[in-house]
Write a structure and sequence with these properties.
120 residues; mainly alpha
Length: 120
């Protein structure tokens, strides 16, 4: 899909950075989510190396984010949010705890990615 002509240069640059540093973005998401027992156990029990784990579970996050910023197509934002909802889902948890977990997860992802980008 060609880039739209009304996409701001800033968004195009952000898409490029997300693609160039996709593994760091995936790692930031993974580290944030691994604060949850579900993901910590998944990471500990994974049979392959860390890169394979990130590719399998978290590679989609930088892809969807980059596509969103490059094309300003809300579908990719919705896909990103959908993946995040799936990752944060924990069955049999009360609504208040679920809302708190989502807030903490999103804040952790933002913080982890900010640290990784600032160190580039």
């Amino acid at each position: 899909m060609p880039a739209r002509s009304d996409v701001t240069p800033c968004h195009g640059e952000l898409a490029r950075v997300l693609r160039d540093h996709a593994s760091q973005f995936a790692e930031a998401v993974a580290q944030a989510l691994e604060e949850m027992p579900k993901w910590r156990t998944e990471a500990q029990n994974f049979g392959g190396d860390r890169a394979d784990f990130l590719m399998l579970h978290f590679d989609v996050f930088p892809q969807y984010a980059a596509e969103y910023f490059e094309h300003e197509d809300v579908t990719f934002l919705q896909l990103f949010i959908g993946e995040l909802i799936k990752a944060l889902y924990v069955p049999k948890i009360d609504d208040m705890a679920a809302a708190r977990r989502k807030r903490v997860g999103v804040l952790s992802i933002t913080h982890n990615f900010s640290l990784k980008i600032s160190s580039l």
